[in-house]
Amino acid sequence: QVQLVESVGGLVQPGESLELSCSASGFTFSSYTMNWFRQAPGTERKLVASISRFGVLRNYADSVKGRFTISRDNDRNTVFLQMNSLKPEDTAVYYCNAAQDSNDYWGQGIQVTVSS
């Protein structure tokens, strides 16, 4: 079955870095655009970053441009989100998403908390 498993979240201080990863199985990973979304308490889930099937195209939300980098390794069926210069407003549950036409898969989400 399809699985998207995110790791590693946690608590970091403002200004620190953290890399999330998402391991995929059960579908042809290289055929899917991969996305990272996040959802803070009381807000809607929002797109943070996306990467095309072979990594040629990458897009970012304005709030994370210049600080976050999305990448993927199609040999390992894994997508990454490198988060630098983290701010308290980056605190949220982060979700990995795979999208292709009408197919849409989600991970379970992982908490990232930025606080001193």
Shape: globular
The description of the largest β-sheet is: 7 strands, mixed
Percent in helix: under 10%
Number of strands: 11
Order of helices and strands: EEEEEEEEEEE
Structural class determined from secondary elements: mainly beta
Uncertain runs are none
> In angstroms, what is the radius of gyration?
13 Å
Mean pLDDT: 96
Strand content: over 45%
Please give a structural write-up.
The protein has 116 residues and is mostly beta strands. Helix content is 0%, strand content 53%. It has no helices and eleven strands. The strands form two sheets. Strands 2, 4, 5, 6, 9, 10 and 11 form a seven-stranded mixed sheet that branches. A four-stranded antiparallel sheet has the order 1-3-8-7, with no helix packed on it. A hairpin with a 4-residue loop joins strand 7 and strand 8. It is globular, with a radius of gyration of 13 Å.
Write out key terms for the chains shown.
11 strands; four-stranded antiparallel beta sheet; 116 residues; mainly beta
In short:
Helix content is 0%, strand content 53%.
Reconstruct the topology from this structure.
Layout: E1 3-7, E2 10-12, E3 18-25, E4 33-39, E5 46-51, E6 58-60, E7 68-73, E8 78-83, E9 92-100, E10 103-106, E11 110-114
Parallel strand pairs: 2-11
Antiparallel strand pairs: 1-3, 3-8, 4-5, 4-9, 5-6, 7-8, 9-10, 9-11
